[in-house]
Amino acid sequence: MRVVVLTGAGISAESGLPTFRDADGLWEGHDPMVVARPESFAADPDLVQRFYDERRAALGRVEPNAAHLALARLEEALGDDLLVVTQNVDDLHERAGSMRVVHMHGRLRAAWCTACDTRHDWTGTLLDLPPCPGCGAERLRPDVVWFGEVPYDMDRIEAALWDCDLFVSIGTSGVVYPAAAFVQYALARGVRTVELNLDASDGSSDFHDSRRGPATELVPAWVEELLASELGQK
Ligand code: BJW
Ligand code: ZN
Questions:
Q1: pLDDT for residue 99 is more than 70
Q2: Contacts of 119 (CB under 8 A, 6+ apart)
Q3: Strand-pair partners of 120
């Protein structure tokens, strides 16, 4: 049983990290979906750096929740047969113990030097224009994927989707591509699809099984169910 799990902001919501499109989703009066654009960075780099500096700092104040922990438990059972593809830039999957995680929209705790095109692990701020550890240029930006940029590791993700028996989408509104199309990709290959989300998403009707509720309840219950059924038969 090879499983691909796609996660979005909803899985980290109960850890205290805001989602993008929820009712109270404004940051200092700005729509995060507008801030997360190369055009916004070009027009007002300080605003965008501050947005990411604050979110990077917030990582130190939050912990993985029961949903992240349940996926780490599933990985213990499945090993290489589980891949978590996350749209999230937080590190809560890793801190829960997951090791096979692809960050398709990048990581908050990384900086990208646009002068020498190198990436560096980064826990500090970027607003103050620290020099790149590689070349010294003051051209570091958050290593995240904005609209119009190409998501990371698409070859690895497509190979895993091509090869899986089960595709599960957790806590994502399904409006941002290419992640929103993964369910179609899986369906075209006859793969079973499950959605675990608080509300109906744009793609809910595409899933074989679509469950509603908070991730901290739905994900542990689904993991227990899977471990008891499919894997328990082995
Ligand atoms: C809970 C919960 C709880 C809450 N429990 N659930 C027209 C058609 C098709 C595509 C396009 C188009 N025009 C433009 C495009 C492309 C564009 C796009 O998709 N635009 C759309 C807006 C239409 N996409 C891109 O540009 C992407 N690049 C690209 O396509 O390159 C071409 C290419 C692709 C592939 C190969 C080669 C080339 C890049 C997209 C980059 C997205 N970047 C961001 C910012 C990242 C950095 C950061 O974090 O700041 O990624 S935007 C933002 O959206 C972020 C998220 O990862 C992403 C998805 O959001 P997510 O996770 O779904 O969050 P929410 O808030 O939307 O939803 C939360 C859900 O959780 C809700 O459903 C809640 O109900 C639920 N929930 N509490 C369970 N407790
Ligand atoms: Zn550099």
A1: yes
A2: 110, 111, 112, 113, 143
A3: 111
User: What is the reported pLDDT for 27?
Assistant: 77
Atom 11 of ligand 1: nearest residue by CA position: 177
CA of 115 to the centre of ligand 2 (A): 5
Query: What SS3 state is found at 116?
Result: coil
pLDDT confidence of residue 30: 84
Is 105 tagged catalytic?
yes
Taking each helix axis from N to C end, the angle separating 66-78 and 215-228, rounded to the nearest 10 degrees, works out to 20
Q: What is the mean pLDDT of residues 141-170?
A: 97
* 9, pLDDT greater than 90: yes
Please report the atom of ligand 1 found closest to the CA of residue 177: 19
The neighbour count for residue 230, using CB atoms within 10 Å, is: 15
Contact 90, 17 (CB under 8 A): yes
